[in-house]
Amino acid sequence: NITPIQILSHKNNFFKNSVYQIKKYIKFRIKERFGKNSEFVKAIILGDKGKIRFWKQILQDSGMSHLLAVSGLHVGMISLIFYIIFKIIFPNRNYARFASIILLIFYAALCNWSASVTRASIMLIVFYFSKIIERPLNKNQIIAIAFLIITIINPKEIFSVGFQMSFTAVIVLINFIPFELESGKNKFRNILINFLGIIQTSAILTLFLSPITIYNFGQFNLNGIVANIFGIPYFGIILSTS
User: What angle do CA 232, 238, 242 make, to 5 degrees?
Assistant: First the structure.
């Protein structure tokens, strides 16, 4: 710098500072625990994808690049793990729900309020509140509330690729997927029907998301229809154990 730097004002934001310090500590612990795989773990837990170009390219070619983006899968799994822990700590379920709401807000902040994390967190927070006040909401009401809150806070988010893909995927899953898991007596038949149903779900999602991927990334990858069947459970194991 040619001219000297002068501090004009200083605002000490306790929440932002706490998030920054905790995120810094979590990154340190991940690096300490996972070594050469730490950057991959940071990507799937904190959405920090700055140093994983190799993995990004491989997953993009296989049609599974969305698994690197911290989304509903990640938020839901982390929330479930901690809700179970909170239920053990607090006998009253509402206390466990309040603790989960605080955790979700903090986790969204850790992930820099990305569209997919914010959407999933708001949906879960609304769900927990509806349970606390005993006023159940249907799934479309929950996603509509999440949509309104995000766009009111930041209207520009509607042009974000992550926002578009996240909401499109959830709306499709809620309203356009006819598949339900079979649980009859014939186990082999159940496994076959469930497997074909998952392929059908993956194909419908891929087709609905294709206009967004073609417009923004100039490609349409059918590999994901099959790859997601194995990739999503595998990522679930990696995420929960990490």
Answer: 145
The whole-angstrom separation of Cα 31 and Cα 81 is: 22
Burial of 91 (0-12, 13-18, 19+ CB in 10 A): exposed
Q: Per-residue pLDDT tens, the chain, 242 aa: give them.
A: 677 877 776 667 788 888 889 999 999 999 999 988 888 888 888 888 777 777 777 777 776 766 776 777 788 888 988 999 999 998 888 999 999 999 999 999 998 888 778 888 988 998 899 889 888 788 888 888 888 988 898 888 888 877 888 888 888 888 887 656 556 667 777 777 777 777 777 788 878 888 887 887 777 777 767 777 777 778 778 888 88
Measured at the CA of 6, the angle between CA 5 and CA 9, to 5 degrees, comes to 135
The tokens of 39 are what?
């950057």
Q: What distance in Å separates the CA atoms of residue 214 and residue 222, rounded to the nearest whole number?
A: 12
User: Helix count (H) and strand count (E) of the chain?
Assistant: 10, 0
One-letter amino acid at 32 equals E
Q: Pinpoint the alpha helices (H) of 111-221.
A: 115-132, 139-153, 161-175, 187-217
Q: State the pTM of this model.
A: 0.75
How far apart, in whole angstroms, are the C-alpha atoms of residue 116 and residue 50? 18
**Cα 168 to Cα 173: distance, rounded to the nearest angstrom:** 9
Residues 194 and 188: their CA atoms lie apart, in Å, by: 10
CA proximity to 113, closest of 155, 157, 144:
157
Cα 165 to chain centroid distance, Å, stands at 12
